[in-house]
Design brief:
alpha/beta, Arc Repressor Mutant, subunit A, two-stranded antiparallel ribbon, 11 strands, 3 domains, 11 helices, nine-stranded mixed β-sheet, about 300 residues, D-Maltodextrin-Binding Protein, domain 2
Amino acid sequence: MQGLDWSDLQIFLAIARAGQLSRAGARLNLDPTTMGRRLRRLETRVGANLFEQTREGQVLTEAGEALLLRVEAMAQSAAQIGEGGKGGSNPVLSGTLRISASEGFGSWFLAKHISDFIDPHPELTFDLVASSGFLSLSKRETDIAVMLSRPKAGPVMARKLADYALRLYATTDYLRRHGTPKRAADLATGHRLIGYIPDLLYAPELRYLDELHPGLSPRLRSSSINAQHHLIASGAGVGVLPCFIGDSDPALRPVLPDQRITRSFWLVTHKDTHQLARIKAGKEWIIEAVRKNRKALLPD
């Protein structure tokens, strides 16, 4: 980055980490006017806008993210030199990390392990978007996505995260009232099935019932896996849940336990930002959480 002032780059780094010009100025003991002037000088020298102004503060542009990747590497190298050249120092994480995940994986798996990641990084803001659908990496709506299939196109990088298992569950009271199915075909008569609303499926991987027995369709339907779980746990019917949800609820019993459905999670990042320190750290945390809890995702 020949011709750029390192002190201006440090100001850029502070704004990127703080997410607000005034907050970054307070940390550097500089007034907002000086911060703004130095940022504009850097943008002039780079030849691009580095931030977009929003109601919440400063958000990196594509050019800003590309510069941040290089400046973070420089800052980490400088920190290692200050420590006598010792490697292995953890980068300071700040700013915002946003992860988009399916509702079940986000709320039942990631949320349980989030303190392992956020506790060592008190300056980092963590957004967990766990909903029916995924934010777009290509449109920069999220930093990391945990998806149900590998993206077929787009400027993204994907790796398989893990397989996970699903099976049928019901309450003991429901099975006492309606009988315990001995085979999948028994579900077609005398049982109230719970599942997704077919025309609101956000991923084809969520079509489960036909894999158990052709022609099965739910009578109680919801676009939310958490709502389906509550319906099943209330004794309203029998339905398919990921094992990491169903097995963790003592009120539920597996139905036809030998019949399992297997799906996969994919870890996806944008090609331009996957090396940013906060995104690398987020990916490593997810991978490690899955490694330590693989049996919950894919029980024996």
